[in-house]
Specification:
With 377 residues, the protein is mainly beta. Helices cover 4% and strands 39% of the residues. The longest helix is centred in the N-terminal third of the chain and has 8 residues.
Length: 377
């Protein structure tokens, strides 16, 4: 097996050590049934608004609540859904401190779900961590369909069976100070953040992000830490992706462009061999897209600066790759590459790399030599 040359800077190691532990679900408010809002009148009838008058200057506040059961009871569902499909939700609102205090293993069931919401809306934990917007072992954390002007802050979704955050056709979304861990084995159910046909997203870099350590923690996802599909105009700053079972950052599709990834890191990626009913199985996705940073299917004109991408020496997957590898690494066989087809197509033109640290091997044509240090990583 080819021996890998790893370039790990002290700053990179220190950044991983500095990631704070996730709070428990103990910070929820009083118990409440699942909440569904489809009109302005529902804000008054749901008995779920704890403050505000619904104006831009004084939005309704939904929460803090501990949701004791999803909307469909034993059939699963959501904790809070605001659905403006009919155009009848025009009031301003925020969602604060929603703890989903139940288990719902259906990957497609979101804890918090906004549909066609465009008024500025914040989904967050309570001030100073007084209450948590959190869940453990549910479906998707937050799902936004066709929505815009949404800020997500201090979310704590652990061991989710769907993505931590799922953005579908949504724009002008920010994500800060969040821990997103997903354990699904089929894309995108194991992704920390999955965005498709979306744009103008900022992940990290907000005024409340900590200095000198990651803003968003995307460690131990079974899939990809951040997975962008035909999604453009994205800023990713100070993200930590580590110990994923498939890969780190995936940029996929010809409409994935103007993505800037900076002061971020990916390390400890690749599958893990574990026992299921006495049989050895690989964790993560069965795919040829294993790697720290993968650009596929024409993703173009994206920029990478002051980042660090490191793969353990035991795994022969690329730290940076254009297109699919054409193989899948079998950890149970000793990290042996096994043929995988069809391979995903390569990256498009115009992707740039500046002061980027990475391990060998890498599989990206024209990639500049790895930097000796990566300030800010």
């Amino acid at each position: 097996m080819k021996k890998l040359a790893l370039l790990v800077t002290p700053a990179t190691a220190a950044a991983f050590i500095a990631i704070p532990a996730s709070p428990s679900l103990a910070g929820g408010g009083a118990q409440h049934a699942a909440i569904t809002i489809t009109s302005n009148a529902a804000f008054l009838s749901c008995r779920c608004v704890t403050a505000g008058t619904g104006t831009a200057a004084d939005p309704y506040v939904i929460g803090p609540w501990a949701i004791s059961s999803p909307s469909g009871g034993p059939n699963g569902g959501w904790s809070v859904k605001v659905d403006n499909s009919g155009g009848t939700v025009t009031a301003f609102f925020n969602i604060t401190g929603i703890t989903s205090a139940y288990n719902d293993t259906h990957p497609a069931d979101p804890d918090i779900w906004l549909v066609n919401v465009h008024t500025p809306t914040a989904i967050a934990s309570g001030n100073n961590g007084s209450t948590s917007t959190a869940a453990n072992n549910n479906g998707t954390g937050v799902r936004l369909d066709g929505s815009s002007n949404i800020s997500l802050d201090d979310l704590q979704y652990n061991k989710m069976n769907g993505p931590g955050v799922f953005l579908n056709g949504s724009t002008f979304v920010t994500i800060d100070n969040s821990k997103l861990k997903s354990i699904g084995d089929v894309r995108p159910d194991g992704d920390g953040i999955y965005a498709v046909n979306s744009s103008h997203i900022r992940i990290g870099g907000g005024p409340g992000c900590p200095d000198h350590q990651p803003c968003n923690d995307l460690t131990y996802d079974n899939g990809f830490g951040i997975d962008l599909v035909n999604t453009h105009d994205v800023m990713i700053n100070a993200a930590a992706v580590g110990a994923n079972d498939t890969g780190g950052y995936l940029l996929d599709g010809g409409n994935t462009y103007h993505v800037t990834l900076q002061h971020s890191q990916a390390s400890g990626l690749g599958p893990i061999c574990h026992a299921v009913n006495g049989q050895k199985e690989n964790t993560g996705y069965l795919t040829d897209l294993q790697g720290a940073l993968m650009l596929v299917n024409g993703a173009h004109d994206n920029a990478f600066a002051n980042d660090s991408f490191n793969i353990p020496a035991a795994a022969p997957i690329p730290s940076i790759g254009s297109g699919g590898n054409g193989f899948y690494v079998n950890a149970c066989a000793g990290f042996v590459p096994q043929p995988f087809s069809p391979a995903e197509a390569g990256a498009g033109p115009g992707n740039t790399f500046s002061n980027v640290c990475y391990s060998l091997p890498a599989n990206y044509p024209g990639l500049p030599p790895p930097a000796n240090n990566c300030p800010g990583s």
